[in-house]
Amino acid sequence: MKSINKIVLLNALVILLSSCSNNKENPLSSRSFNFSYSVEIPSSGKNKLEIWIPIPSSNQVQKISNLKIDVGNLDYTIKKELSHGNQYIYIYSENGTSITSKILINFNVKRNEHKNIIYDKIDSTSYLDSYSMVPVGDIFSQVILDNNLSSNNIRGVYNFVLNGMHYGKPKESSAEDQYYSGINPRTNKKWLSSKNSYGLKEVSLDKVVSLYKESKMSNENYTFGNGNSIYACDIGVGNCTDYHSYFISLNRTLNVPTRFHMGFPISSASKGNVSGYHCWADYYIKGEGWYPVDISEADKNPSEIDYYFGTICENRLEISVGRDLFLDGHNGGPVNLFIYPILEINDMESNNFTKTFTYKDN
Question: Closest by alpha carbon to 322, among 265, 252, 262, 264?
Fold first, then answer.
């Protein structure tokens, strides 16, 4: 059981949590808004500069229009990665830039609430294999066996992940850390309890924090927020990437094609800033199409558990699909999650940039 305590969270968190609430009085509705994705990069001097930035594509549930790209004095090309068809901007400057570069991507979005969809030109069989952080078989075969999970009951897989995972990103064992000590404003219950044990390894909350710190020191990915399904299975605490990676590993082990989607949540307010990404998944049933799920949102708001099995609200924007993406010119190997800019200076990845995301209803 997920335990109880009380502490007030920041208003920004409340807005993020409410961003994907469905409109039950108007099912299968739509929303139109303008979205701005901006990046500011300091001078690289005379060092080679390369930047990869994802841009959204239209499909049966969202229409992207009036795309405008302003990269200042830099040059760019629009490319498409081949495995999933994601689009991205590639900026290359052999001699770098002596000034701060400001990049602005602006576009209109019409996003639909949706249930199962038969998408054009999607080969379901290409969504059965492992990703580097989302393996298939082995431990997941054992989990399936131990818990009587079946390809004939994907709701059972959804429920298993929902009940086995706990939403939270605790970084410090302190009262100031909202996920270590704070409450979920939707349930008025503590995000994570120090009295509970988590995951198949039955770890403590303090161990979750310790694993986070160890991963940051060693630059490893065995912590929340990387979409590492082994970590999700072992530890059972994480964010949307972890829930849906675990779901994908189980489904694909059951030979059910399942995809990973990444984008941004859009608050119910008519305009505002977007503080971070969101992700979800969908699975394929032959003759019926792709059924969406959003397990982490369901966990944060239990009143919508049934809704988020098979329905996705319109309050979001999809930016990319899939994992292990190969981008032209990128030296860091396949990209695990592609939502934020990737910057390389002289072929070395750098976080020396700022990013801002805003939206306004049309």
Answer: 262
